[in-house]
Amino acid sequence: MSLTPYEFENLVITLLERMGYGHAGSVERTSASGDAGVDGIISQDPLGLDRIYVQAKRYAQDNVIHRPRIHEFAGALLGKQGDRGVYITTSSFSVGALAEADRINARIELIDGQRLAELLVRYRVGVQVEQTVELLRMDEDFYEGL
Fold this sequence. Notes:
Structural class: alpha/beta
C-alpha cells in the first residue's frame, strides 16, 4: 500500500511477466498521461495481434470497485479494439462489478487484493525466501530390502 500508483503499476506488470504473459511477445507499461484507461499492454505473440490490456488500481482496502469502473475499462478495451483485459486492485470488487465483468462481450479477469497477494507470493514477486525446511520420513522400503 505504500507504493505510488506508478510503482504499483510496475509491480503488476512485473507479476504478469513472471506469470508467463508476454514471453512470445512483449509486456509494456503505458505512459501515465493519456493512457485512455489502460496501464499496460501484453502482446502474446511477436506481431502483437493477440493483446491483453491491463488496468491496475492501488486503492485502500475499503474502497470497493463498483460496476461503472468495470464498464469504463470495457470501454477502454473497445476503444483499443481489444477483447481481453485484466483489472487488478489492492481492494475488492462489488457484486455489480463482478456481474458487469461477466455480462460484457470482452473477457475481463478481475483480481482483488487477496488474490493479488496470493499471486505475488506464488510467483515470488516482491518476496524473499527466509527459511526452507526439509522434512524427512523413514523409507520403509529401504529397510525391508536389507
